[in-house]
Specification:
Low-confidence stretches: 1-12, 77-82, 103-108, 342-372
CATH architecture of one domain: Orthogonal Bundle
Shape: extended
Number of strands: 0
Number of helices: 23
Mean pLDDT: 71
Helix content: over 70%
Distance between the termini: 155 Å
Radius of gyration: 36 Å
CATH superfamily of one domain: Flagellar motor switch protein FliG, alpha-alpha superhelical domain
CATH topology of one domain: Annexin V, domain 1
Length: about 400
């Protein structure tokens, strides 16, 4: 009797139901749980995996009860699995989500946008927030990054935040999603639609960075014909080899040491501006400088395709060093590029238009002018003739 009561109590736990259902379906269709976890994201998967870990052995009666309830929800109510009625009820009963439309409106997982932010931006924000918020954010990101960020706090605050993380009660999903959106607004400073658009533009800019410059230019130009504003934003966010001119000498030195072989750098430097060339040569060690200059001479005449590939490899090396925090965030370089109006816009033809106005009958414009001049000449001759006649008449009167 007591065992049955205990079982009934466990069945009423929403997460336990979800765990039992998932394990039963996976036993019938191996690999299903892996697909579902991939869709759910790390945070939600972690909670459900924790529940599965606590299941232990589940008797047939409890499994049957869960499956019957699921069958009743999905079939008896004349709903199709995956239909709105079913998902609305399942989300509410299993996860406490009251607003399914808002839940599905997000194209990215819970707190996924944090992955796009540098550690510096995130730690600056957390240091301004209260310790409870800091503890919650640090508990929701990967452990390795959480430990790294936690070490950036003063020792006393580190101890307090760590203690709060141990005793933290993770909010239910509705509150988590609200916190997710508030965090986006605070860190990105934009509304939901703009945030989603910004994430898409950010992702595409990173993809285009990996292409050779000719292909990248073609793609951006094609986008520009349809949406110039987005194309400009993408161009601004792309970190290119030429942007190294804005990198600090310290970071350049760190990056240059990582390039191997040195001949690839020499190939990448073909055709670059004198300013960037001097900056790169000035940032490399005195020991390697003569060798690099020799490699540059040898690489003279390298194919444009090889030059672009070499430059692309160095750009990706910079991204790798940025992720490893060996160099400063490249977003600072991109900001400098934007401030210096690095992205060129088509030159205005206003001056030419003023000098040579484009009118429908522009080619015939000189003709009326010529006709007017001829008329003026005729009038002038007639006036001169009249003046002569008047003078002759006056002379006759005098005589």
């Amino acid at each position: 009797m007591n065992l049955n009561l205990s079982t009934n109590k466990s069945i009423t736990t929403s997460r336990r139901k979800a765990a039992i259902l998932l394990m039963y379906l996976d036993s019938k269709m191996p690999g299903l749980s892996q697909q579902l976890f991939a869709k759910m994201g790390e945070s939600r998967s972690k909670m459900l995996l924790h529940e599965i870990n606590q299941l232990g052995k589940v008797d047939k009666t409890e499994i049957s009860h869960v499956m019957d309830e699921f069958y009743e929800l999905a079939i008896t109510q004349n709903s199709v699995i995956g239909g709105k009625n079913v998902t609305d009820k399942l989300l509410k009963d299993s996860f406490g989500i009251e607003d399914p439309d808002d839940f599905f409106s997000s194209k990215s997982g819970l707190f996924d946008f944090i992955n796009h932010l540098s550690d510096k931006i995130l730690i600056d924000y957390l240091k301004k927030e209260n310790r409870q918020v800091a503890a919650l954010v640090l508990s929701l990101i990967p452990d390795e990054r959480s430990a790294k960020l936690l070490s950036e706090f003063p020792v006393e605050q580190t101890a307090i935040i760590s203690k709060k993380m141990l005793t933290l009660d993770v909010p239910n999903y509705p509150l988590l999603w609200k916190f997710h959106r508030e965090l986006e607004l605070n860190l990105l400073g934009e509304d939901d639609d703009t945030i989603e658009e910004s994430q898409q533009i950010f992702k595409l800019s990173r993809v285009l960075e990996m292409m050779v410059s000719d292909t990248r230019k073609t793609v951006v130009d094609m986008i520009s014909t349809q949406d110039k504003s987005s194309a400009d934003k993408i161009q601004e966010l792309i970190f290119s080899f030429n942007d190294l001119v804005f990198m600090s000498n310290k970071d350049l030195g760190i990056m240059l040491v990582e390039i191997d072989p040195l001949s690839s750098l020499a190939v990448a430097m073909q055709g670059i501006s004198a300013e960037l060339k001097d900056k790169l040569l000035g940032s490399i060690s005195e020991r390697l400088k003569p060798r690099l200059e020799e490699e540059i001479t040898n690489a003279d005449g390298a194919a444009e395709e090889d030059v672009q590939k070499a430059q692309g490899s160095i750009v990706q090396l910079c991204r790798k060093l940025e992720n490893e925090e060996k160099i400063d965030p490249l977003v600072e370089i991109i900001k400098q590029k934007q401030a210096s109006n690095f992205v060129e816009t088509p030159k205005s033809d206003a001056k030419e238009s003023n000098e040579f106005p484009i009118e429908p009958e522009s080619e015939e414009a000189p003709k009326p002018e010529k006709e007017i001049n001829e008329q003026d000449i005729e009038k002038k001759k007639e006036k001169e003739k009249e003046a002569v006649n008047q003078d002759d008449a006056k002379e006759g009167d005098v005589s």
